[in-house]
Write a structure and sequence with these properties.
It is built from seven helices and six strands. The chain has a two-stranded antiparallel sheet. The protein has a two-stranded antiparallel sheet with strand order 3-6. The mean pLDDT is about 75. Helix content is about 60%, strand content about 10%. The chain is mainly alpha-helical. The longest helix is centred in the middle third of the chain and has 44 residues.
Length: about 250
């Protein structure tokens, strides 16, 4: 809107005064620029703040008072990566507050259980002090047998739930153990055994023996099943003849 008004004003001056109108128009613009703009109105909130206050100290300059906080030294930046941020600190405060309330509730419940346990022990002691024919049986103190059965069922359900949750970890560790046994234990025929003497420092140990491989077992069976060669038969017969000749010479 201001641009249109200025353009119309310039045309009117130019039509009425010619070149002098242009000069007059430029002079008016310079005077308008030299004039100071009025300051905006001071905003006064309905509920004033006791800490923050501010006012315009000059054109385009707004001074804010922080109730003395602005005179304090500027805090240093936290460079430690382990330090809590503002959001983490807020979450930690909320968590600590919640945990404190939970601990207070637990402490109250424990105190109630302790009082009930002491009262129950007193009842048992009073029952033992009565004559035998007047004493109650231990089962008579169970107000409702279904309560104990329900507690046992809940315990069993919790155990089953925990077993289901840990089934994957259990299977993982069993497979790891199986692999280690296959790698280091199943290949042994006998493990090392060390026997220590009682009255001396002597000790005796066996060796770790590896199981023979399939190839070595097959080789042993083939050697035991094959027929002896002529040289082997000759050696055996020659040794036998020599021994018989020695026996004859001896006698």
């Amino acid at each position: 809107m201001k641009e249109k008004e200025r353009e119309e004003r310039r045309k009117q001056l130019a039509a009425a005064m010619g070149e002098d109108g242009e000069k007059e128009f430029h002079e008016e613009e310079e005077e308008e620029e030299e004039e100071e703009e009025p300051l905006p109105e001071i905003f006064v909130p309905s509920t004033p703040c006791h800490i923050l206050c501010g006012f315009y100290s000059g054109p385009e300059k707004f001074w804010v008072s922080l109730f003395g906080i602005e005179t304090e030294p500027i805090p240093q930046d936290i460079d430690d990566p382990k330090a809590y941020s503002i959001e983490d600190a807020r979450k930690k405060r909320e968590h600590d507050k919640l945990m404190k309330e939970v601990e207070e509730i637990k402490a109250g419940k424990r105190e109630q259980l302790r009082a009930l346990r002491n009262e129950f022990q007193k009842l048992l002691q009073m029952n033992e002090e009565l004559p035998k024919h007047m004493q109650f049986k231990r089962t008579d103190f169970d107000l409702d047998s279904k309560i104990r059965a329900e507690i046992n069922k809940k315990t069993v359900r919790k155990i089953q739930q925990v077993e289901k949750e840990l089934a994957w970890d259990k299977e993982k560790h069993e497979l790891g153990l199986m692999k280690l046994q296959n790698r280091f234990r199943d290949s042994l025929q006998s493990d090392a055994i060390v026997v220590h003497a009682i009255q001396s420092d002597h000790k005796i140990a066996s060796y770790r023996l590896m199981k023979p491989s399939k190839y070595s077992r097959a080789k042993q069976t083939s050697q035991s099943e094959r027929r002896p060669s002529k040289m082997e038969r000759f050696d055996k017969e020659g040794v036998g003849k020599q021994e018989s000749q020695k026996d004859k010479d001896f006698y």
